[in-house]
Amino acid sequence: MSENLKSTFIYSDEFAKYSYGPHHPMRLIRLKLTHDLLQAYGLFERPEILKLEPQPASEEEVALFHRSDYIATLRGIDQGIVPPKPFIYGLGPGDNPIIPGVYRLSLLVTGGSLQAARFVKGGRVPVAFNIAGGLHHAMPDRASGFCYIDDPVIVIKELVNQGQRVIYLDVDVHHGDGVQAGFYDTDQVMTISLHEDGQFLFPGTGFVEEMGRGVGSGYSVNVPLYPGTDDKTYLWAFDQVVPPLVEAFKPDVLVTQLGVDTFVDDPLAHLRMTTHGFCQILERIKSFGLPWVALGGGGYHLANVARAWTLAYAMMNDIELPDQIPLECVETLQEHGLQGTQLRDPEPTQLIHQHVRQFAERQVKALQQKIFPLHGLTE
Ligand SMILES: [Zn+2]
Fold first, then answer.
1. Predicted local confidence at residue 3, as pLDDT
2. N or C, which terminus of the chain has less Cβ within 10 Å?
3. Catalytic residue among 35, 66, 136, 137
């Protein structure tokens, strides 16, 4: 194996074989669309890029966060046992259907995230990306928000057990509530989530006042944003909050959840991000120069997911891709919502929506007053 690896990409065609059902917004084909677009751009032919098949996580690893009766319930589903009271575990018709093979799928996703973390922690690569990961809503005893096993929590638990200080940064449009819950009482992990305000969107949490508890006080950070928030206001809020806290916390490792349901045409939420804003977030994350475990996340406009994560992975490898999408991918992506044939969105018109901006300013101000002093930062 080359010792000059630049990154690892974790992926299996197996992911796309599972289904949440024909009418469910979570479509695992988005992972294949992303992989195939990266492949068409030639990334996997490069010697500095290592593509890896994920290995399933063990039950012991999953038990780092999840309760044994919940794990047994998921395992049972794969063995054809219908749980008698699925709803107590958040399972059933709706967000978290009883998918045949759900346990196998979850173990594979989680195993991929653990592999990403091990490659990074071991110094083999500066960055590893598991696009199937980032399932940030799952709780110890229940499925939530299309998430069954909380791979970010399990990855971070393993890193913490090895003495690492971790920043978890979540740019999904939904609050990273499961991960916040996993580390609410500790100062070894700082969770930072930017998301659409919980008054307007699932899971209804993630307010500034949720700051952590006990020694963990000041280590849960939430930046709620108003519906309609665009690239400019988002990046402004990001810059006010994230770099100073990363600087003050001095993490050993960065774990990011890179959900792209923040985009303007995502069917499940109401922010107005484009590939331009998303790439600027990536640029900032990269500039921290930290060992980086990159996980996927939400994204329900399928062609957007493929475009955004292709751009993200190219950036992780310092590759500038041509804007013309390779011909072999155009038709398939158009079937999944692509307009035109370009990788990047058109430059957005930068209208300042006063209400959106003022809302962000109030949240940032509150964070600077409540959390910054706990880390020796002044406003
Ligand atoms: Zn989401």
1. 63
2. N
3. 137
